[in-house]
Design a protein that fits this description.
Alpha-Beta Plaits; five-stranded antiparallel sheet; Four Helix Bundle (Hemerythrin (Met), subunit A); elongated; 678 residues; 22% strand; six-stranded mixed sheet; alpha+beta
């Protein structure tokens, strides 16, 4: 069967299953008695095995089958799994994730399950016949319909118990041969393992209930003829009780390995795990899961068409503005209303919750806190906050950088926290919320905070600043040093941090998304990293301005107000023009110089812009008006280092460049001079 058309769905659903398993395992480690999570884990693992087998990925199916054996024991335990088992399961999930990536890239599994299968089998004792019967849903073989029917018909029912050699190499093959040998002497009514599960059998004990008139010793002798059979025991099941046939000599079965997992009584001590606070599993009703999976490329195409419609609508509005045709203006207004409603709907379709990103953090926190020897309580707030798909896709890596820094540099070890009068368990809180036309995501920890003098000292040793600058540094200056490329406070490099790549990459990535990142810290009390992003990157509300005959667009959420330049007071400070306002003095930037137009400017207006941590004034020739623009990325060769983040097609066919306000502030900290008439 050709399964290629189902491959994208398989990859997407497998990733979802793996994310859910990661979260569920961490949640179970926190609360081993959570039976709902146990059932969820087993259902997901079973689905994953079935999907991979259907698609022909036998290695994934083999590994998930062995994992299922471990998960099945969770149903019989009240104290969860030991740490060794949890680590092994996580190693399996990582291998499966890598295999899915390989399948998507080149169509091959790229997975060797043998080492992981060995680790999994070392955790699980071979099932006893009773456990095997319970696994296939037979509580008592004597109550099985076939056994009852044979007894009612007057047949002689026997139970045959077979033990294989300890060093048996192919237990599944030997079990099959035993059942075939028993078939020579009668009808096999029930067996453990069942016929349909022989391929997965890895135990040493085989039980079968047969209807036979043959001598017990003859049956036992025939079975002993099977290679690697150690003992055979035959008992008759009758009203007068079982009649035993003397078995061959037996030896004591080997004890299980120390890490073996077996069903434990309810009173067993709970496994010691590191405390964490994680979101509970949600019980979803059918009405909550009525969704349709749509390829992301189709959503992008839909948004592109919507953008074209916005451009054409703007052109129609401009063409009909001065026409005196009866009913035309009303028709245009209805067109505008309908297209705006459609635009809002398309934007909503592209929205997905940030929970897609948040799901990776429970596992990340668990692994890092264990490696660093720290105790961490993770709090996820606002997981249902929605963002445009393109923003969510790009948000993951910057957020991971911030979380890693909080764990490695922010939160202290338990003994250090106790010495500082804090709880031994640190708190890491990740929050998402809407704020106007933006989404704010915060990473907050209650660790030791940022020490400006320690940051300055490290910068001096790296040759970034001199001693005089270091002596006068404040928190704001220390934070700016953290965002400098190549700066790191780690004494040694590791797989967590210390390679000088991190915070500068975070700022660059967030700026590419049209957002900003701000860090605030209180020494000894903790640190707050805040990311502010636009709801969508596809359509932006902006003020269109004219600079030297060319069009630029400034995002409306960054504009504080606009003023006529001729009505304002401009002073020169150290040779730099400054705009004097009632609420402060701002550096005044010449738009023609900022955007390198090299044309004599005739600036009539000034736009007050709010950047990441300051305000500035930008002088422009004209204010064209407010526009909704469909943004497009620009090649670096086109922007040529200018403070712009993209472009947008206007109704008249011209291109307006989207102003990157944060880059504008960083690049033009020394304000360009503006020519003023005497």
């Amino acid at each position: 069967m050709d399964t290629s058309e189902y491959m994208p769905m398989f990859v997407a659903e497998t990733r979802e299953h793996l994310e859910q398993l990661n979260l569920a395992i961490v949640r179970l480690e926190e609360d081993p008695k959570d039976r709902a999570t146990v059932e969820e884990i087993f259902r997901i693992a079973h689905s994953l095995k079935g999907m991979s087998a259907t698609m022909g990925f036998s290695r994934i199916a083999e590994l998930t089958h062995e994992m299922e054996d471990v998960f099945e024991l969770l149903r019989q335990r009240t104290n969860g799994l030991p740490v060794e088992a949890i680590d092994t399961v996580f190693a399996c999930l990582d291998a499966l994730s890598a295999s899915v990536e390989a399948i998507e890239t080149d169509g091959e599994e790229g997975l060797d399950p043998a080492p992981l299968v060995t680790r999994l089998r070392s955790l699980v004792r071979p099932r006893t016949p009773e456990q095997e019967m319970a696994r296939v849903g037979i509580a008592d073989p004597l109550d099985h319909a076939a056994v009852i029917a044979a007894q009612e018909a007057g047949a002689r029912v026997l139970r045959v118990h077979v033990t294989l050699n300890e060093e048996v190499l192919m237990p599944a093959v030997r079990a099959h041969m035993v059942l075939v040998a028993l078939g020579d002497h009668g009808e096999t009514l029930v067996s453990a393992p069942p016929h349909d599960s022989l391929e997965q059998f890895q135990g040493r004990e085989i039980d079968a209930w047969i209807a036979s008139d043959h001598e017990d010793e003859a049956i036992a002798e025939n079975v002993r003829g099977v290679s690697e059979v150690f003992t055979v025991e035959v008992k008759e099941i009758s009203n007068s009780g079982p009649v035993a046939v003397a078995p061959a000599p037996e030896v004591e079965a080997p004890a299980p390995p120390p890490a073996a997992v077996e069903p434990a009584p309810a009173a067993a001590a709970e496994a010691t795990t590191q405390p964490k606070t994680l979101p509970k599993a949600e019980t979803r009703t059918p009405s909550q899961t009525r969704t349709v999976r749509v390829d992301a490329e189709r959503l992008d195409a839909l948004m592109h068409s919507m953008g074209e419609l916005v451009i054409h609508r703007t052109a129609v509005e401009a063409l009909t503005a001065n026409l005196e045709i009866e009913g035309l203006q009303h028709a245009v207004q209805e067109l505008t209303r309908s297209s705006q409603a459609l635009q809002a709907m398309v934007m909503q379709v592209r929205m997905i919750p940030v929970d897609v990103v948040f799901l990776r953090f429970p596992r990340l926190i668990r692994d890092l806190s264990t490696k660093l020897g720290k105790e961490v309580k993770l709090e996820l707030i606002g997981s249902d906050t929605e963002l445009d798909r393109t923003v969510v896709d790009a948000l993951g890596d910057p957020l991971v950088h911030l979380v890693r820094n909080a764990l490695d540099h922010g939160l202290e070890r338990p003994e250090d926290r106790l010495a500082a009068g804090k709880p031994r368990q640190g708190t890491l809180q990740i929050t998402a919320r809407h704020a106007g036309g933006s989404v704010v995501i915060e990473v907050r920890d209650d660790g030791n905070g940022i020490n400006p003098q320690a940051i300055a000292g490290k910068a001096v040793s790296l040759g970034m600043i001199d001693e005089e600058t270091a002596a006068a540094i404040d928190m704001r200056g220390a934070v700016e040093l953290l965002f400098t490329s190549g700066f790191s406070t780690a004494a040694t490099t590791s797989d967590i941090s210390g390679r000088g790549v991190g915070m500068d990459a975070v700022r660059d990535k967030i700026r590419q998304l049209g957002g900003e990142v701000v860090i605030d810290s209180t020494p000894g009390a903790g640190t707050l990293a805040q990311i502010r992003l636009p709801l969508t990157l596809a359509i932006v509300s902006a003020l269109q301005v004219d600079v030297s005959g060319e069009q630029f667009a400034i995002p409306l959420d960054r504009i504080e107000r606009t003023l006529r330049l001729s009505q304002q007071t401009v002073r020169s400070v150290a040779g730099k023009p400054m705009l004097v306002l009632e609420d402060g003095v701002l550096p005044l930037h010449d738009g023609a110089d900022v955007f390198r137009r090299g044309v004599v400017a005739n600036h009539e207006f000034v736009v007050i812009i709010r950047t990441q941590d300051r305000r500035l004034a930008l002088a422009v020739d004209d204010l064209v008006g407010q526009r909704e623009l469909v943004t497009r990325p620009l090649p670096e060769i086109v922007s040529d280092g200018e403070p712009v983040s993209g472009g947008a097609a206007l109704a008249d066919g011209r291109i307006a460049l989207i102003v990157d306000c944060d880059a504008l502030a960083a690049e033009n900290s020394a304000a360009a001079t503006i020519s003023l008439a005497a």
